[in-house]
Design brief:
Blueprint lengths: L1 E9 L4 H12 L4 E12 L39 E6 L31 E6 L10 E10 L4 H8 L2 E16 L2 E10 L21 E2 L6 E9 L5 H17 L39
Antiparallel strand pairs: 1-5, 1-9, 2-3, 2-6, 3-4, 4-5, 6-7, 7-8, 7-9
Length: 285
């Protein structure tokens, strides 16, 4: 599936006003949105971009060098960060009065018949360089219906836990456009110390804004299943642009820098050990 995207920014002081305007545009009341996003990174490092070598022993054979051609160098497999997303309610957070909750031993994604899944995995690709006036990227989301979602993510990569954060806001649906007005929260002083996602959540009042200004992000999204169908793709682009026109004068929606939505794992070449006197030999004269 592909997503067509536009983004805007709403100052905290205009939040309530924009909520009401969006309710009028979408002809619906806002749906509260509260999520936990757990970020994972592949354990193995990607090879250096452009590196093309054979592993193992080789024999040097004299051969005429091939002429250089204007062809792209073979690129090794790119690795990406992935997310585990949990739908939350305020009842899932710890008590604000400091009361101790029983510590859970693991996370559970068990779904009872008739209930919606709470956990899902999310992959988001780097947006392409399209000039259609909207940002376009490939994405894939899969519901987790049973078991320990954290253990599944560790084994599937294999991956390692990086960090977790929370998304709070409201969502609307306007035709095929999914609109969300949200901001990111985090637990201060904890993110760099965690080795795994929490099994018991902190009190909601203990979370701080990631952006101290309190500004909200307005995201407008259209999902396209058949990306290769030019008619379907153009219809989605036009619908998103119509919403962009509707919001002019209220919130300016635009295409963000595609690298700000980059989910690729950056390659860091290993540092060569410094030369020491132990491995330096002096040649006598």
């Amino acid at each position: 599936m592909h997503e067509l995207l536009l983004y805007g920014q709403v100052p905290a002081g205009r939040h309530d006003q924009v909520l009401k305007i969006l309710a009028g545009v979408a002809a619906m009341q806002p749906r509260r949105m509260l999520q936990r996003c757990i970020v994972y990174k592949p354990q193995r490092e990607p090879e250096e971009p452009g590196l093309n070598h054979r592993r193992g022993g080789t024999q040097a054979v004299a051969a005429k060098p091939a002429p250089k051609q204007n062809k792209p160098t073979a690129v090794t497999t790119t690795l990406y960060y992935t997310k585990l997303v949990q739908k939350l309610s305020l009842d899932d957070f710890g008590a604000a009065d400091g009361a101790q909750q029983p510590e859970a031993t693991s996370l559970s994604a068990h779904v009872v018949d008739g209930e919606e899944p709470v956990w899902s995995t999310l992959f988001e690709d780097l947006p392409d360089t399209s000039d259609r006036g909207v940002s376009i990227r490939f994405t894939n989301s899969t519901d987790v219906l049973s078991g320990d979602p954290h253990a599944y993510m560790l084994a599937s990569g294999p991956n390692q836990f990086v960090t977790e954060y929370y998304v709070q806001g409201h969502r609307y649906v306007h035709g095929n456009v999914v609109i969300s007005l949200h901001r990111v929260l985090h637990e201060p002083g904890v993110r760099n110390l965690q080795q795994a996602p929490k099994t018991t959540l902190p009190p909601f009042a203990a979370l701080d804004l990631l952006d101290p200004s309190g500004a909200y992000v307005l995201e407008a999204k259209v999902r396209v299943q058949d990306f290769n169908n030019a008619t379907v793709l153009e219809s989605g682009v036009n619908e998103l642009k119509r919403f962009q026109t509707q919001m002019k004068g209220c919130v300016e929606l635009s295409i963000p820098d595609r690298l700000s939505l980059d989910t690729r794992v950056r390659y860091k070449p290993p540092q060569a050990p410094p030369a020491t006197s132990a491995n330096t030999q002096a040649r006598p004269r």
